[in-house]
Amino acid sequence: MAASTAASRLSPPRPRTASPPSTPPRRSRFSPLRAAKMEAVLSVGAHVIPHPRKAETGGEDAFFVDSDTGGVFAIADGVSGWAERNVNPALFSRELMANSSAFLKDEEVRHDPQILLMKAHAATSSVGSATVIIAMLEKNGTLKIASVGDCGLKIIRKGQVMFSTCPQEHYFDCPYQISSEAVSQTYQDALVCTVNLVEGDMIVSGSDGFFDNIFDQEILDVIAESPGVDEAAKALAELARKHSVDVNFDSPYSMEARSRGFDVPWWKKLLGAKLIGGKMDDITVIVAQVKTVVIPDDEGSGVEQEQGSELGTGAAVVSAE
Ligand SMILES: [Mn+2]
């Protein structure tokens, strides 16, 4: 049987708990002394596969990728429990991403994903809630991350996962989330991380529907085999999707569910059965590769061009199709 739990992803009010910030050493590999004319940028690919039953409406995940400022991307996962209150769960996540993209022009948020989240949340008028992750690459190679809930981000260097965000949750299957309701998490609850990246590092970010259905080793294998970020994002999403509908796949989600005490009834256990299966959900994957570009003497102009050609598109809000 497919893994499932009775727990709703719609959270009841809980006391707010600030997450301890994680601040790795701030030693940049793109220091002005070593490379005065180099800047870090991201080459980004993205792929979305909606929940099988939500294919017509595009699902409830939303994301955006922005090539200006060196590379910003974000994912929001609309909490599906709102459908029980006759609210379209996609509206909140999509508006949050549209607002996040719009606020990138605001000087105050250009270097702080947590402030971007604060402003985008405040500007969002739709009813609903969402988990969200925002990542910003600075020109010196510093990646800044703010995450509320269980969207994830991993950094792969030399074929190994060298960094992963941790999910935040109230209880199993009920992640922290920002909401239209006053009682919810806010930007102040965000997990905030800063990681110094080097050229060639790969970033793999996704909604919970991705990470619940794929193991780290599979991510590493796909990244190693893929010729580019677009192909990698597509292949990763498709592998997660395949697992998500496989009732015999012992997914990270079903393993986690068992570790939390969810399982098949005792009499089935006696027959050797256990709770396994993928988790059907919207699947969003963003793959980004860190590159460096050389700044010509008339500082700045050449970078914009190169970013444009690498990233393909400028700011765009995209939801699942
Ligand atoms: Mn999800």
Automatic annotation (TrEMBL):
Its EC number is 3.1.3.16. GO terms for cellular component: chloroplast. Keywords: Hydrolase, Magnesium, Manganese, Metal-binding, Protein phosphatase. The keyword Magnesium applies. Residues 43-290 form the PPM-type phosphatase domain. It comes from the Eukaryota. Belongs to the PP2C family. This is Protein phosphatase. It comes from Brachypodium distachyon.
